[in-house]
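User: Run a structure prediction on this.
Assistant: Running it now.
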Amino acid sequence: MYQASVTVFRHYLSRVSDIVAVAGPDALDARIADAFPARQQFATAAGFALRIACPLAGRESPDLPQALGPRLAVARAMLGAMTPAEFEGAETRIIRHRAGFADIEQSGTDFLFLYGLPNFFFHLTMGYAALRAAGVPLGKADFDGFHSYPEGFHF
């Protein structure tokens, strides 16, 4: 569970930090239709990373700074302080949480794979898409950190 949560969240929050640097502060107000602006989408993704990893590790979810830069830094640092041992038994740990106005109870496995990761990537992708729609020159390589394309090619 550690590899499927902390490792993934840390990698993609690092990507968000790089995307934010490319975008610049003004572009972070971009949004798709009536969705939250990119800044809030990324902040929500950072919050989800801890909202998911902390209960799996048997920790309380912390309050995070509101400002995006410090929020990303704190989330990445807190995730970096977690250990695989904290996640032993997380698969069967019962997690009680709210999804909007719904009260939910899930096993750790369902919580991570059916709720946590999809919501994290939803907000990450919405922020990325808002920036792309606003003309920020981002590509798949910026999103995942693995792809490589020629200069100026934004797939």
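The radius of gyration is 16 Å.
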